[in-house]
Amino acid sequence: MISIHFQILLIILFWNSDCQIIPRIQECGLSCSQGIHCKSKPSSGIFNSFCHDAPASLSFMVLKSMKISTVMKCVQGSPCSLHLNIKGTLSLDESIRGLEICSLSLDTQQSQCTFVRFARKKSKMLNGKKVQVQFNCIEVKVAQHIYVTMKTVPNYCEVKLSQEYCVEDCRNSDVGKYIPACSVGKFDYNVDRARKIISVNISNSLRDQDYYVRLCHKWFTCEDTGAFAVIKGKESLKSVSLKYSQLLPCLCIEGWLAIPDARRIQLCPFENGKYYTKALWDNIVYNPATQTLAWEPACPVLVMVNLCRLMKSNDHCEDIQNSSKNSSEKQVKYSRVDTHPRLCMKFTTKQGSWVKCPFAHGEFPAWKMRTAAVAEQIQVFFTFQTKAQFSVLVCNRTQLASCESIGMHHSVSVGDSVSIAMSQEMCGSTICIQGWRTDVDYSVPLQICDIHCGFHGQTYGDGNPAKAMTHRMKSVHSLH
Questions:
Q1: How far apart are CA 311 and CA 397, in angstroms?
Q2: Strand-strand pairing, 63-73 and 160-166
Q3: How far is the CA of 436 from the CAs of 329, 413, 420, in angstroms?
Q4: Is the pTM of this model over 0.85?
Q5: pLDDT digits over 356-385, tens only?
């Protein structure tokens, strides 16, 4: 367990890093101690990239140290900017003409190099003395990750200092207050549901600076929805209207200054439960070639997805076994799915459940189960536009969605029929004939129930009474 004193120390350290005041400069430049005259000029870094063997007299410790910090350049009438303040210490040697200081952005791989040259006469006189070089003209961005190197000129192998450095971000109060990239402004909004428009008003942004506003869907990043606008800095009325298609939980308003790497502000006002509407579950696609049913969420939502059978009697949708999936990824997919109108997808969140039936509109072929009475048997047959395999059984419906088998399974193909022998005990309101597809992984079981049987005596030519069973024709339209 972390001690209370250690916790307090961590809090103080983090508070200090956020509240640290960045030193100010009005001009950037180069300075060298010991009265040595030194000059700097930009360098490509190429001429000094190959190293040479150091003279035997030269110590590998000629470069003593390098320290990096951040300074803020603020000139009246111009925005402040951040610069690296690089201090290096070396021992002067007649074989060293100067230093090369380079910075590499680990984010963009862009580099800047500067060649620092010493006045030769003075440096010879101070041979072996330590000199400190300070350079602060490398401009950097907020939160930039920098790799800094310091090498001798000429570049002697193994005589080099390097260090990684992270520039303060907008959480630093000084940086957040004075650096334009951290100025995000403030906005409020109004929703016109009839016209499907969100009006956004901007305040507290920099004067004469353009401002971008857009609508986006927030995933790991905020993905563009196409609604995008620019508010000109010179305009007195800083307002814009953006069209939306659906008010979804992940729909956000994002704004930022029109400068490179500007800090962005997001407002996501539709995250509460009432925006978990049917539109969130609309993107269901079926591929007939692969018999694949897929749903791609419009928003990152924590949802349990099930295939289910829509019950005719009360519109309840009963889950199909082994079809539960979590929406941990951007797509939920089911392979080899039956296209029956009563096969649906159920979406369950903390806010409630929604059911979508992608085959309910007759766009895909649906199979039907029919029965007909022949003597003391019932013939079961299926109609469908394509080849398919089915299974049939007699069951006892103990609950609305539960039917327990009381007979053998029978297999049948489209165009064929199967005969089931019926007895007086099987004629009742809870006895059903159930059929389902077996050539797919996910199918809805359909039931024909409430089988009415009657036995009537009739005299034939031989005088023996004959039993005849009457059975009403049942079809898929009487399904439960």
A1: 14
A2: unpaired
A3: 31, 11, 16
A4: no
A5: 999 998 888 889 999 887 777 888 999 998
DSSP 3-state of 439: coil
| Among candidate residues 20, 163, 197, 167, the one with its CA nearest the CA of residue 83 | 167
DSSP string over 180-200: GGG---EEEEEEETTTTEEEE
Backbone angles phi, psi at 7, to 5 degrees: -60, -45
Vertex 112, ends 111 and 116: CA angle to 5°? 145
Residue pLDDT, tens place only, 380-433: 999 998 899 999 998 888 776 678 888 788 899 998 888 888 777 677 678 888
Strand-by-strand arrangement of the 377-383 sheet: 368-374, 377-383, 417-421
How crowded is the C-beta side of 60, counted as CA atoms within 13 Å? 3
Q: How many CB atoms lie within 10 A of CB 362?
A: 8
Residues 6+ apart with CB under 8 A from 239: 199, 200, 201, 202, 231
Length of the chain in residues, anyone? 480
Q: Are strands 63-73 and 24-25 parallel, antiparallel or unpaired?
A: parallel
Q: Which residue has the tokens 């099987």?
A: 426
Q: Are the beta carbons of 116 and 40 closer than 8 angstroms?
A: yes
Strand partners, 465: 459
**CA-closest candidate to residue 155, choices 183, 115, 187:** 115
End-to-end distance of the chain based on CA atoms, in angstroms? 60
DSSP reduced 3-state for 178: helix
